[in-house]
Predict the structure of IPT/TIG domain-containing protein.
Amino acid sequence: IYSASIYLPRGPLEVQGKRVSATQLEFVIQQISDINLPSGLYDAKMIVVWTAQKFNIENDGLTLTLYSCIEQAKKDCSVCRNLELTKPAMNCKWCEGQCVYTQQNCATSSCPAPSVTHISPQSGHFLGGTVVTIYGSNLGVKFSDIENNVTVAGIACNATAKKEDYVPSKSATKQWLANG
């Protein structure tokens, strides 16, 4: 039997664990409802002890990442779907209007339509060539969702957008070209 101390902002949390293989220990941590995760992530220091021998296992620098699907996605379906693709070990899914841990019992639901909250700049040359950044929510899960699918005033943006300028769901930078 093993025990671990997980150091949270409110103080240490003690949990019990067991050896599941020669190289792996398993600790079960119930939902922690009294920890504030404003960014949705928190790296906590963890110290593991072999309880029977009262022996600290060498684990300097061992951290445990605590996370909240709801806080990371901030009620944005595309952010949640991006977590599914880029961080599958977190087991987040979009369900009934929020991003939840996949072990919650609900059917996966579809994302709402994109919502644009701001465009910058708000004016450009009539001949085009203006680089615009579109801000909003549910603006795609991955770059290919928006790559050749954005129009401004009914005119397609060209493919000069760069992947590094795309923030999943939140913003996309495109160059607008006028016809003629």
About this structure: Residues 13 and 161 are 46 Å apart (CA to CA). DSSP finds three helices and 13 strands in the chain. The chain has three domains: 2-67, 70-101, 115-177.
